[in-house]
Fold each of these.
Amino acid sequence: AQLKCYCAITDKNVPQLQAESRYNINSQLEHLQSKYVGTGHADTSKFEWLVNQHRDTYTSIMGHPNLLDSVAIVENQSRERTRFTLLQRMIVPCGLPHEEEKPFEDKNA
């Protein structure tokens, strides 16, 4: 038996998600996050997220010929030179990661 709840916006009874449905959705999300690196997870740092965004953007530009042509025209380079430049940028798109200090680390030890 599904629980019913009243939705004031649509004036209809709306079934709520059951515990099994929530578990199923969470397991699907975990599967996607393990399969695809760019989807992130709870421990993804801001730097990792930004690196994934840059790499996805460069890949999209290289995969769409019209975008690649536009970037090549703007940079006044050939298409292949632009593709090579984008590939080089994908290696370290946002520079090296910063060293983060651990909050409870004893620096005198």
Amino acid sequence: MTSSTQEVPGETNPFSWFDQVITPLNACSLETSAPIPVGPEQAPDDDDDDGKTHIDSRLILPLVIGCYQLNEGSSSATETNNNTTLVESEKSDENADDAPVEKSSRSGELRLYMIPSASSESESNNQQKHNDGIPKNNEALSFGDPSCVVKMESGVLDGKWRRRDERLHRTTTIGTTYETMPLYASACASGRIHLHSLENNNPLSWNLSHLTSSEETSSVEETSLCLSLAWNDFIMDGCNDSFSNAVSDRIVSSYSNGTVAIHNISCSDQPGNEEDGRCNVNIEETNRWNAHTMFGCPSEVWTCSFLRGDENVVLSGADDSSLKIWDIRQTQRPSHKIGDSEFEAGVTAITPHPALDHIFAAGSYDENVRIYDHRKMDQPLEKVCVGGGVWRIKWHPSCWGVDGTRGHCGKMLVAAMHGGCRVVNVPTLVGAPSDENMGDAEILSKFTAHESMAYGADWIWFDQSSCEGAASCSFYDRQAFIWNSS
């Protein structure tokens, strides 16, 4: 682990990074959640001799790195390198001889880090800035040691924190209440979805506690990789939304066999746990359909999402170079499709805007991020080349503000595979979309320290007044960085 500020060699404008970790397995996804107050009971001040416990004004930000590793069978001659994509690695394994001495397997784990913000005293002492305008307290951002490592039953390909007000619908004998529980869902190569909750057994110890998992497939022939998932968490309780706050929690997931599925997440009383108030979390698949094919065969569905503005709409993107829009009440055929007339390669990332109805970003292997309005899909509102195949798109966290603010509404972080990471801005997305031209999207900054495919990226952001950063991870070199996104 390195905690000093470093510069990336070979860049015209050197780019700083503040910390680095190496993961034991290939790093495939990286997700941050909303920050959590440290709290006075968690911050005894050992430097003072007055015997008092002092209030610590810091926040801590949960960050999970999902890891995946293909353990090839002994007869496989397939070799991978830093320029091989995840799909190429998987396909080479599937096309290997049918009689291996040892069958290939996939290992996985979740690595939880709790990223602390600078203390209030540190912030007041660091109002000065470097010559490039970066607040000095950015340099305090670091991974630290992992708070916990969860060994998974298979490789982790995607993961998402549930960001929707962290209140889960709970059915009890007296009606529906809400359970406070930060949840993390992971998509695994076994085809299963696993749910974990963030818990602290004591003030300084955080862990991911397993809650439940989706059912296993009934036969080996039906097993497919769960490639991506997304919550319907853009519907935020306490906000003046057009949706009903009574909408239940759901997860949409996509698979290597061309299917898309919907799962309901529910919480009910758990017998025997009345005293501690814990509930029993359930995940139930309610719908699955064949969504994408290519040359008559199933096509890997790399990405999927719900859409803010219509609770019955699901978006999917696949290796067949198409983006499809589905009404989940009628999934025999998509309500709209955009194919290779627009996309020059597979569609790999779809992310709805958390604050603007009907607006979403789509990324592709063709190295472009496109902004769409679901109500007029004839052409993208904006399109920007990011210099690498797009694997993740993350809107700026200020878009999630429950106080109604929509700062940085057009700002997004992009993991661009061999191109590293980019911070992109669509200026006219600040506020609400209009019928006028969107204006030119722009690349604000880039990060190129990764030595292989950058697959995971997310923001490190504590509040409107704190410093801003980003974290990202790459696959074959097993690196994760915290870096300056300004």
Amino acid sequence: MGIGYLQISTRKKLIPTVEQELIQAHQTTMIAKGTDLLIDANRSDDMTLMFNLLARTPTGLQELCRAFCEYIKKRGRVIVMDDTPEKDKDKDMVPAMLDLKSKTDDILQHCFRNQSIFKDAAREGFEHFINQRANKPAEMIAKFVDSKLKTGNKEVTEEQLDNLMDRLLILFRYIHGKDVFEAFYKKDLAKRLLLQLSASVDSEKLMLQKLKTECGSAFTARLEGMFRDVENSKEELSGFEQFSGHPSKRTPKASSIDFAASILTHGIWPTYVPSELTLPEEMNMFMDAFQQFYVGRHSGRKLQWLANLGQCRINATYATGKKDFQVSQMQAVVLLLFNDLNDLSFDEIQKATKIETDELKRVMASLSHVRMMVLNKSGAPNVISVHDSFSYNPEFKSKTFRVKINAIQAQETPEEEQKTQEGVFADRQYQVDAAIVRIMKTRKSLKHALLVAEIYKQLRFPVTPNDLKKRIESLIERDYMARDREDQTLYNYVA
């Protein structure tokens, strides 16, 4: 109100003095004490007021920008480095990061007017904390995407899912080790495709397109190959139906059995170790016929059956009515043994099926769990021992006609997680080796420090100086390069 009667010459001198004494002199304290408090309490009006006040000083916004970046780093580090011993605490990591991103985006839009320096500060903060814990955030983002693309996720509409995928890709953009995300995403996508767990093929392809736009066609080449294999498998099955050697054309009993096979191109899908499994005659009859059909159609190709990925649907008849069991191939083989015998020991089942001990324990646990009880078991409930015996349960009850018991196939075991991580590590070693050889082949001779700097420019993932040193030593041992005799810090390429 008082400014109106001040002369222009007075006002020009007075306002900077007032801003200096009332704002700039206190801005460091204001920012240090107010930034975190106002953001945490969602006091956007007060945050806007502080922004407007600090905009009147020469360095106010720069200081606020640094404080905003530090806020994101501190809050983000708590999310990704949470040492709480609570089980599966990491599952809350991605939702917490999304919440933090939404909060900071709101602050940027409503309080900081989307100014570029604050956007850059937010990007720096997220990129810093999300890479503080190597590999885990990338793994958890991939698993979170998997949970949202699976059948049964009915909590969001297609439009909401599309929006969520865009938000997740922003987090993905901050990750340095994108190969970790790719490895876990590929493993989970394979299960969704092979076990028919995808909620929507359109959503799967949309996510794939988003990844392709973000990272390029090289990143998604193998993922796209998996979809091609699924489509090609349908064509192969259509041809098999017309095959003269089809079991249903030779054996009337086979006409009641439906058979399907997925043909996976080696090198495109995750690496699967074949499991030994003794199959019933009916299953072998179809598999042998399909092998004959496929090899005859594609000369030079070879099929390897993966029993641990197989699925079956078995009809069962109880006094209360019929049931349709959706089971894994291993579960099916075990259940079919009880068509002829009411009681079998763990050892007898293993001898009949040849299933490995730990895998058979998982299978028997799923069939005799107190919530399912397809089979009765001796001994402690929900704990499988090699000394247990199992029997047919005539009192089995379920409210639904179709009973899904093959959930164990979709679950990730600790061994699978470790195998995926080891695969990423092995691939990184090959990429580091290839980068070093490319550089040395071009430069011929190079100092250690310069070589390390060149390697960092070429790699898409983080790597420690100690790991680089190990790869260099490995290449020296394999005669790809050699240390200079006069200068041990100089490397020479060996042609």
